[in-house]
Amino acid sequence: MPEHTPAPTPGRAIYGFVLYLLFKTLFLLYILWAYIPTAWFELVGLTYLPDKYFALFLPKVTLVAVTLFAFIIYPSLALSMMPDVDDRATVADSNTIVRCEYSFPDDQCCHQRVEDPFEAGWYAKRHCAKHSSRHIETQRTVRIANFCDCPYEGQCLLRKDPEYLPTLRSKDPIPAVRDLNLSQVSRVLYRRCR
After folding, report:
1. Is the dihedral of CA 124, 128, 130, 136 positive or negative?
2. Angle between the 53-68 and 10-35 helix axes, to the nearest 10 degrees?
3. Which one, 34, 84, 88, 140, has the greatest CB density within 10 A?
């Protein structure tokens, strides 16, 4: 079965050329019908042509229909396909990265990625699987020394040179990139306490 592609093919070229000629011919016939007096058509025997009024009426109706579609119908369709304002999809999707908020005794954060953070609607999980409340009692907490979220493994410094991380520890490293926690943003913006 041939693959569907928008690339030009010989069949499309033929159909396109035929449609081009057809619409040029129809436009020429429309102009002739609009400008040639009705008496000349009656001399030839064409008495069943529409009234000349439609020569002006049809373009006007077409322009009104296109304007109505462009400014009312099309935006309404786009708005109807959008999620509701209070839907979680307006602020987070499957590509949202939520980091673990667990703090170690030395005030370092885990920053491990939380898998499936929005299973329960708006309530996001705050901790990774290692630090979630059901696993804290059973597992010993160990800080992840070289957590890396690089999309391109070949360009990751931590994977190329494992000794790179201790050199960063001596400096003040930039924290890992993460999405802002929506509840913290709301607390700051609206001054609400938990």
Report:
1. negative
2. 130
3. 88
